[in-house]
Fold this sequence. Notes:
two-stranded parallel ribbon; five-stranded parallel β-sheet
Amino acid sequence: MLQKIISGGQTGADRAALDAALKLSFSCGGHCPKNRQAEDGPIVAKYSLTEIEGGYAERTEMNVIHSDGTVAFFNEHVSGGTSLTIENCKLHNKTSLLINISACKTSEAVMTLQEFVHLNDIRHLNIAGPRASDCPKMYDYVRAVIFALVKATED
């Protein structure tokens, strides 16, 4: 059963996942880059993230390693940090799920993600996807999906 949401705290998908978990008082955390770096400035303290010495790439790898599986959200094309996340999942033999937000309604994404978590016995789920500047609609989509996933877990 799902016990924790993990993310790196970047704007967009990462921040949406943390906000959904926090809204429901669900356990969340993860690793963030040195100086709590994000595109909108330092990540605020309300996000209980462990700061590491490295940058984005090292943060991504740490969150993959410390999770049981990863869901990576993307919009039409996987690129940038999302690609790196998938590479790290393969490197560390961690299961992953890709969700294309332009081809999947949020309700479908929730059901797919619930099945993924159940079938793979995922307790600590890493959330990945583009930052807000690369995909402005990512935040709302991921927040809705993770909120519904966590709410269903608690019911």
